[in-house]
Inverse folding.
């Protein structure tokens, strides 16, 4: 959804209502949509969100990605090995 918050929220509402499952890929989307999942008490698994505040949105919100403080330095180090 390319970071489009309105479309993300609409998609989340559909998934919560019909599928009872949600997950957002971008942290920006998660900050807009995860509170909707939290209020609906629907588990939300965010596969690649790295913003450190994601897990603080609520007890129904979780992620499987390391926080940006870990991801960014490791990504830079790997890129520098490939192309110093």
């Amino acid at each position: 959804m390319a970071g489009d918050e309105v479309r993300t929220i609409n998609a989340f509402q559909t998934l919560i209502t019909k599928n009872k499952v949600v997950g957002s890929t971008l942290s920006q989307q998660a900050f807009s949509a995860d509170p909707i999942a939290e209020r609906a008490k629907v588990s939300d698994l965010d596969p690649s969100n790295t913003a450190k505040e994601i897990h603080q949105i609520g007890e129904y919100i979780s992620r499987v990605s390391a926080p940006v403080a870990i991801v960014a330095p490791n990504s830079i180090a790997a890129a520098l090995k490939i192309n110093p």
